[in-house]
Give the backbone structure.
Amino acid sequence: MNLRNDYCGPFDPQLMLADFSRDFLSRLAHEFNLIGHLYDRVGQPLVALEYGADGFTRSGIEEWQGASPVYSPRMQQALNFTGDTVETVFKNIQLEVGAPQQFMDFQFRLDEPDYGEFWLAHCGALMDLERNGNDTDLIKRMCHDIEDPTFDATAAATHPRIVMRPLHRPPRNDSAIGNGAQRYPHCRWKVFKGEDNSTFEHTPVMYELQRSLLAQVPLVTQEAIVEAGGLEDYSGPFDPQLQFEDFSQRALQLIIQENAVQALLLAHSFTRSQTIHYGDAVGRRLSERSWVGHARVAVERLRRIPGLQGDDINTMAKLFQLHPHFYPRSYVDLRVEITGPASLRIGIGDCPALHEDIAHNWFSQLCAEPHPALESLAAHVNPRARCHRVDDPGEARLAWEIRVDERNEPLREPLEMQLARTSGGIEFEFERRRLPGLIARG
């Protein structure tokens, strides 16, 4: 089977993840992993603008407490490393959007199955705050107030008595709550199974997400091995230096889809949190705005992939096709078709995403009229693109046409994307930490 190492050439409407090589998929896995993490660079600033630092803190806690205990067991099941030890927690961290490889450069030491430590050689989230004012109070909110309950929620998904406790953490200054000017590593934590019988109390939003269709959705991959090499799962020993490049072509398909699920669960959790505290109108509005901004964040990152740099309709079709918001296909039945030299058609068939019960989630907002997020995505490829209603969706449940007209005034970049640009994650460059041709240990 001839597998693709890039997406150069014409758009292929039948293309699937299984058609790409292991090397390509390892790069795409890094992108999906970081893109999911960057959801907070859109959603949380929107909350902070309207509800201040306290609103930002509450939202950050509830979003991650709601999503991470749901997606952690999913990844364990997908890669066959179920367990109830600190080792299992560390494996989860290595693969999830809360700790994107390299941008949040977690380093690990596992002393025994139920005790270990991790530290961050590079914390992109801290770098963002230090770059944008180095506000001690804001850093404390992120590294103390938000991290404490959300780290424990993630650990409790593996075992209700596993906890994470800081050895040191920012702010990196000599204040009363600081850990010393320019302290390196940025933070260090110990993870262990507590001796008492107390267990972590999960947020009600977590139980809502557990019942969602997204939490139950299966992943799609081929049974046959089409490219040799790499780890087929993570059932073996914990590898503190693990990279996505270490996995097989088939395992990478699972990881990519699971990272897409994780990002959507974060968006669902964010929406529920705002709706509960501020009402339906605010929940709906902030959900829509976060989709408008994060859709562009994903395009910005994906344009680093060979074959996705243009502003033509061919490139736009590819970017819709590879966009993480429409994965896994078992959840979002996306159809993309080029209909002319400057037009394409986007359709969504009947699928779980259109039947999701989470109020005001992204896909529940879709109707016959174009959604702003679809036009935002298209306009980030070509600012003269516009999204139009399609009265007859054909075999799809919903459909829209994207047309690029040179007579259109270029759309300005929305505030939501401008907020995201304050993060170094938008321009972050990944390293290849494996030698070419030797990108796996399995």
